[in-house]
Amino acid sequence: MASTVIVHVDMDAFFASVEQRDNPALRGAPLAVGGKAEERGVIATASYEARKFGVRSAMPTATALRLCPGLVLVPPDHKKYALVSDRLMGILRRYTPVIEPVSLDEAFMDVTGSLKLFGGAEAIGKMVQADIKSQLNLTASVGIGPNKFIAKLASDWKKPEGLTVVGDVEGFLAGLTISSLWGVGPQTVEKLERIGIKTVTDLKGLSLQYLTGCFGVAGERLYQMARGIDPRPVIPQRRAKSVGREITFPSDINDRQVLLDTLLDMSDYICRVLRRQGLVCQGVTLKIKYPDLKTVTRAITLSGHTSDGISVYKAAEALLDSNWNKVTPVRLIGVSTSRLADRETIPEALFPDRQKDRSRKLNSALDDLLDRFGENALVRGRLLGRGSGPGEGVGKE
Ligand code: TTP
Ligand code: MG
User: Fold this and answer.
1) Which of 18-32, 84-98, 303-317, 325-339 has the lowest mean pLDDT?
2) Which of 160, 243, 297, 352 is the most interior residue, by most CB within 10 Å?
3) Same structural domain, 217 and 280
4) How many Cα atoms occupy the beta-carbon half-sphere of 219 within 13 Å?
5) 334 lies in some domain
């Protein structure tokens, strides 16, 4: 069996690079993405120009401005970063289906099965970097090694635009300090340094028994890390089969309008989740549970795909009206969407008329607002004036 080869991809100064890409006036400037100093904001990330001044992620913006008075501060645009991230993961998926996104800007790829097809891991790393450059107009650093731990260290080895292949694991680790080990927190580092352990080579001198005695299960990880061992597999992210939401009412409900308002709120929420993930649905399922716990689920297939809250709500409303006798109290109600597909793969013809175009624009404006001001920022007019909505319901994904 071929030995495992893992590639770790990490975008360079991600949020800052996206902002510089989209606004030429910001290129070359010491730039940070983050919250305002007067609002006690912190830095999300800084461009490499700003890093020269010591500006770092998680630093209070006020401190960053003291270190770098010419710092240009840009507010974060999370929606934009999420879209870039989706495209990044799409690029990586062309080289192997076994990809595990770790955050918006980084992912592991198990390329063991595609080495022959693409001419080796280094070739894959280079092609990924070239695709990111040509298709996203951004740069990434790539690390290649026999496991996640080594690949992650390797991608950080040379930044920006680095490509580091670790063949000699022992030699690579020997020179590293323990604080550079991924996942080793400052408290552990302090504890180890107190007993004179500064480098990975020092760490290798400690027995498994000693390390587990001091650090419990984390001690075993330290023992393995010192030897470049990491048994964790790359766990490919599977697309959700359905996205749904349900709520058990504090007391049983037989008021149709309350049930409809609840369905609308849940449909809106579900569709925001779909849109964020670039998905559309074609199936809508309604679930009703009665006080005697008897449960009814009924599904409907829409004529086309959608990620519009009102369209999902209309389907749920129709299902409610054809399956509920309007008198029996309802204990729980839920909506879920299924038959999910990537929006990109659905032909535009399915969104032909102006009504749909308008609702797409409206949804996009809605998403912008919610991304900026949070989930509770907007409530549809008809929901205003009600007490707590189903926002506290159980999310079921
Ligand atoms: P990182 O990959 O840690 O940083 P980076 O991509 O900005 O820079 P590098 O070239 O060193 O990889 O994080 C990715 C994004 O996550 C980053 O651009 C902003 C965000 N982030 C925060 O919002 N807060 C944080 O504390 C960190 C570390 C990152
Ligand atoms: Mg990064």
Assistant:
1) 84-98
2) 243
3) no
4) 14
5) yes
pTM of the model: 0.68
Question: How many Å apart are CA 370 and CA 375, to the nearest integer?
Answer: 5
142 Cβ below 6 A of ligand 1: no
pLDDT for the residue numbered 345:
67
222 lies in the same domain as 260: no
* Domain extent for 62: 14-72
Bridge partners (DSSP) of residue 191 are none
**To test ligand 1's pocket by mutation, which of 12, 105, 156 has the most ligand atoms within 8 angstroms of CB?**
105
For ligand 1, atom 5, name the residue with the nearest CA.
13
Residue 341 falls inside a structural domain: yes
Ligand 1, atom nearest to 16 Cα: 18
Residue 97 confidence (pLDDT): 83
Active-site residue set: 106
Looking at the domain assignment, is residue 158 inside a domain? Answer: no
pLDDT per residue as tens digits for the range 172-215: 999 899 998 888 888 999 999 999 999 999 999 999 999 999 99
Query: Is residue 101 domain-resident?
Result: no
Check if 14 has its Cβ closer than 6 Å to any atom of ligand 1: yes
DSSP 52-93: TTT--TT-BHHHHHHH-TTPEEE---HHHHHHHHHHHHHHHH
Residues in the chain: 397
Calpha distance 11→215 (Å, rounded): 33
Question: Is residue 325 within 8 Å of 334, Cβ to Cβ?
Answer: no
Please indicate whether residue 105, judged by its CB atom, sits closer than 6 Å to ligand 1.
yes
As a whole number, mean pLDDT of residues 327-351 equals: 81
Total domain count, the chain = 3
Please state the atom number of ligand 1 nearest to the C-alpha of residue 11.
6
Same domain, 385 and 247: yes
DSSP letter at 337?
Answer: E
Residues 122-148, mean pLDDT to the nearest whole number: 97
Roughly how many angstroms between the first and final C-alpha of the chain, as a whole number?
36
